[in-house]
């Protein structure tokens, strides 16, 4: 017999992990103790939250995803001052003290993302906020280079929290058909943070010294942590349903009441399974592996620019340290253009493709109104072309000292291409992995952060050996090698995802 869900309860197969409140379910006498959403309009379901609360949560998560990457490069203009204070002239160490933060951000998601799928998003956010601010303050007080490097690494571990979990939080709160705008704004943080860092860092270093770059991050991080502690609401569906089940167990005295999304595992077993989930997704899903590699290389190019702009624009164009910060504006404007294009097109294209497929009867077994994850990739070919085009223009116009505006515009093409490449691929992972979106994103962030840390270390040597023109051309040719992957994802992505589906996550 088909029934509407009883308030606080729902009879259904617990293997179904879709958490939309619009699903239909069957009821039997054997599973009346299973808790689900209270119908289509359950106010506890994050999709049904008031608009102001959803926007507040998304805004806070997006702001936090900006602050942590800001710390990557904010003190980069102060590195020469720092190295003089600590009596070091090693070029590799100069680059490493900046990029070590990315290694922390590579390690952090492996712990943080799965823990958020056990304890919920909010608890992990609060713990990581405290850890991040504490270690950034430690950086500001560091007595020597060794302690600074260690503290930078640890601040990166905790700072990775929002990059790892933010996309999952947005998936918790925003339905698939309206997700593009929120996700585009969230993606801006990891891209604009490192761009804004050197602009502000140059002026702060000149006025106050390199330590004040860390104090600024600590002050902003503390303020944001307090606001989040007062206003942020838990959005992870399994944790919300488990809280509802706990209330019902207490009020009814029935110990058998449980959430529909309860895996039935012991806490220890569930924690162990969660901790290996990102690695499992990265290793056993070829689509995730290829997507993660593509994102890593694309993002790595930006990190190389962050660490090389000072030397390039000072040596080739005679920029002062303060003026070098303004060279990053091309990256910022390009990112904003990319976000605008993605926001205007992605949700519309998703809805159109789903409607066309439904009209043709091709989506009868596809959940969420036939909205396949692959429909998010419409902007990917554009982004995949803009990145190498921008690299070629940037390299050769700099090599031949063409007016400084031209290479800066070229960096705008690169950053626009980055947005139109990285954001669709991240959206694909979110739409494909649903409740485990944070772990899927963490898998991609691991490679992204490792390449982001390693590429700048090799980049300056590459420029010294090949020159700016051929050095950036080499990067452009590597980017072109990834272009066929765009069409593999578009044409065979769904097949590969289902062919190598991971049954137990």
TrEMBL record:
One of its GO terms (molecular function) is transmembrane transporter activity. Residues 1-26 are annotated as: Disordered. It is found in: Membrane. Keywords: Glycoprotein, Membrane, Transmembrane, Transmembrane helix. Residues 57-496 form the Major facilitator superfamily (MFS) profile domain. The keyword Ribosomal protein does not apply. Its main location: membrane. It is a multi-pass membrane protein. Pfam families: MFS_1. Belongs to the major facilitator superfamily. This is MFS general substrate transporter. The lineage of its organism: Eukaryota, Fungi, Dikarya, Ascomycota, Pezizomycotina.
């Amino acid at each position: 017999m088909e029934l509407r869900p009883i308030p606080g309860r729902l009879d259904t197969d617990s293997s179904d992990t879709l958490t939309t409140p619009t699903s239909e379910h069957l009821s039997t006498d054997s599973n009346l103790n299973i808790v689900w959403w209270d119908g289509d309009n359950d106010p506890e379901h994050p999709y049904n939250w008031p608009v102001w609360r959803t926007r507040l949560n998304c805004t806070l998560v997006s702001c936090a995803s900006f602050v942590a990457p800001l710390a990557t490069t904010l003190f980069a203009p102060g590195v020469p001052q720092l190295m003089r204070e600590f009596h070091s002239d090693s070029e590799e160490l100069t680059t490493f003290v900046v990029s070590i933060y990315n290694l922390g951000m590579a390690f952090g998601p492996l712990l943080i993302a799965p823990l958020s799928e056990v304890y919920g998003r909010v608890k992990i956010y609060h713990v990581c906020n405290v850890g991040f601010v504490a270690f950034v303050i430690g950086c500001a007080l560091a007595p020597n280079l060794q302690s600074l490097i260690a503290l930078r690494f640890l601040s990166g571990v905790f700072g990775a929290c929002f990059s790892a979990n933010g996309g999952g939080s947005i998936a918790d709160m925003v339905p698939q058909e309206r997700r593009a705008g929120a996700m585009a704004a969230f993606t801006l943080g990891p891209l604009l943070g490192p761009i804004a860092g050197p602009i502000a860092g140059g002026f702060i270093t000149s006025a106050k010294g390199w330590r004040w770059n860390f104090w600024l991050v600590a002050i902003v991080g503390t303020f944001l942590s307090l606001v989040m502690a007062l206003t942020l609401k838990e959005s992870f569906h399994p944790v919300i349903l488990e809280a509802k089940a706990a209330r019902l167990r207490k009020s009814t005295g029935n110990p058998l009441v449980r959430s529909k999304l309860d895996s039935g595992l012991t806490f220890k077993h569930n924690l162990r399974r969660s901790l290996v989930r990102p690695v499992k997704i990265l290793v056993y899903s070829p689509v995730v592996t290829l997507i993660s590699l593509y994102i890593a290389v694309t993002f790595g190019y930006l990190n190389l620019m962050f660490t090389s702009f000072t030397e390039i624009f000072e040596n080739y164009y005679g920029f002062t340290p303060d003026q070098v910060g303004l060279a990053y504006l091309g990256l910022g404007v390009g990112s904003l253009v990319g976000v605008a294009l993605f926001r205007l097109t992605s949700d519309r294209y998703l809805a159109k493709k789903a409607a066309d497929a439904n009209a043709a009867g091709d989506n009868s077994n596809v959940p969420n109104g036939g909205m396949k994850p692959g429909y998010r990739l419409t902007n990917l070919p554009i982004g995949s072309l803009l990145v190498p085009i921008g690299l070629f223009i940037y390299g050769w116009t700099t090599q031949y000292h063409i007016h400084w505006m031209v290479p800066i515009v070229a960096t705008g093409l690169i950053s626009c291409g980055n947005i139109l490449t990285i954001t669709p691929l991240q959206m694909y992972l979110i739409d494909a992995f649903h409740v485990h979106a944070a772990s899927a994103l963490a898998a991609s962030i691991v490679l992204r952060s490792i390449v982001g840390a390693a590429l700048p270390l090799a980049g300056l040597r590459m420029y010294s050996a090949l020159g700016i023109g051929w050095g950036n051309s080499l990067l452009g040719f590597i980017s072109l090698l990834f272009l066929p992957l765009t069409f593999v994802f578009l044409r065979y992505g769904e097949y590969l995802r289902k062919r190598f589906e991971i049954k137990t996550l």
